[in-house]
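I am still learning, so can you show me any protein sequence you like together with the matching structure tokens, please?
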Amino acid sequence: MNCGQVKRLLPPFLDEELSGRVRESIASHLASCPACRTELEALKADIHLLKQTETPEVTPFLVTRVMAEVRARKRPVPHGFGRLVGSLAAVLLVAVSIGVGVLFGSGLAQTSAPIAENSTEAAVSYVESSTTGMYSLMLGGD
């Protein structure tokens, strides 16, 4: 196995989702490759940091605010099942985006108001870009 293959398989390797020859091949590569061992340790550190962080509560006000901004940009939304899935995915993406923003923004010396404002705008942009691609895939687009 080469370094690129090993690096792509490190998350399932850590989660013990791999077995047999693949797991043995990765373990063998890690034993002989300092760069991949460093990558593995960095991934472990990231996982440890994420496990220590609490998921922030998403308030109904924030969801309403983000969804109002998305609607204000007047993008066409497909109807039916795809719309329901897209709406649920958008709310989930907002929650995750805010969680990541809080995780990385919590160490900054800023007040909570600017963080919340920036997080909302970032979440809106992320939701729009993510749902556009998702709708395209669901509707058989590119």
Observations:
- Residues 112-138 form the longest helix (27 residues).
